[in-house]
Amino acid sequence: MTKGRAIAALGLLLAATGCIMPDQLAEFQKDVTDVQSSLAAVSKSQAEMEKRLAALESTTGADDTVKRSEIADLKARLDTIVRQTTATADKVDQVNARVDRLSQDVEAARDAARRQAPAPAPAGGSDVDTAALAAGATVAGATRPAAGAPAPGGSAPSPSALYASAYADFSKGNYPLAVSGFEEYAERYPDTELADNAMYWIGECNFSQGSYKAAIDAFDAMLEKYPKSDKAAAANLKKALAFVQMNQIGQGIEQLRFVTSSYPGTDEARIAADRLQALGKP
Fold this sequence. Notes:
Helix content: over 70%
Low-confidence stretches: 1-22, 118-149
Oligomer: single chain
Largest sheet: none
Shape: elongated
């Protein structure tokens, strides 16, 4: 996804939910611009260094000690730049993926909220739109009761309200609370269309906290329970990135290749191919 597409998607998302927040949009625009600029700068440095290295190698003789030393130094610096490129590309991927997933999940939560909404009140009654409120909680955020606590009135929280508030916690970086909410959702409502999404976001929460082994375990649990989930490609990709983050490069490369072969034509396959290229394993 390009920077323009990411920002446009976010703008459409906020407009669709009826909860446009210019400060949040501006913050997201800055995040996208920053990581794209950083990636462009690092990529430019890498290209210049590779060109210089190739020129030196083509003119260096067997006894040219100075040039051989310079080549060794350039190779070490190039390795550092490749790692920086990989890390920056991961940030771009995370920003873009977050826009995509946010858009998908807001729409899914709104649909679930509409299905859970009570019949319209008679004329003269309350005009509160409970479905809209539940959907709005996905973006604006709402205080969620502790896991397992009943909703006001003593009843269990509705699927849409529980999912929306857990996602709001994730969006605000309240990862432990988000994990608690998504786990509760997956346990209470395992047969709903968002149950696999909830388990996926548990993995994302762990990944965002740097708990890569826990993230892999969460993605594996989701894939085992919902192998045909529309989140399967994303879960397998994040597993690969988690392996790379843990410096288990061999497993990461194997997993990235699995993504490219299993999900051809998807954004996840494109990202996996880009990452393999950055790792020197196209």
